[in-house]
């Protein structure tokens, strides 16, 4: 667990704890089931459980830190057809969220 956290920080230069908080603020929790985030049991989008091991993001782009940060900030810049909306989260904030998602194994 500690290893996963260190690795997530190294990959993103983000703060996973802050990222977890941001996911409640920006409504991610309303659409996604996210382990470790209170009341995050949304079923609109896929569960983010085990996200660190996911090969593709949204089924279209290879899962890498920079692509994930871009997806979180503006998913439609990666897949114009995706149902996931732009939430208004900034790129800097998306980095912290990416850090948290990469702790999920
Ligand atoms: C209105 C509902 C909604 C909101 C709000 C939302 N998402 Fe999504 N999200 C989706 C849907 C639907 C998909 C599936 C998209 C696709 O496959 O095209 C998705 C896909 C994703 C994926 C890719 C998952 C995978 O396994 O491929 C990630 C990561 C993600 N969302 C993170 C977030 C984060 C972080 C937030 C908050 C900033 C957020 N989402 C807000 C609906 C939402």
From TrEMBL:
Domain of life: Bacteria
Entry-linked SUPFAM superfamilies: Cytochrome c
Keyword presence, Metal-binding: yes
InterPro entries reported in the protein's UniProt record: Cyt_c-like_dom, Cyt_c-like_dom_sf
Residue ranges annotated for the Cytochrome c domain, each copy included: 14-105
Keywords recorded for this protein, A-Z: Heme, Iron, Metal-binding
MF annotations from Gene Ontology: electron transfer activity; heme binding; metal ion binding
Protein name: C-type cytochrome
Lineage of the organism: Bacteria, Pseudomonadati, Pseudomonadota, Alphaproteobacteria, Hyphomicrobiales
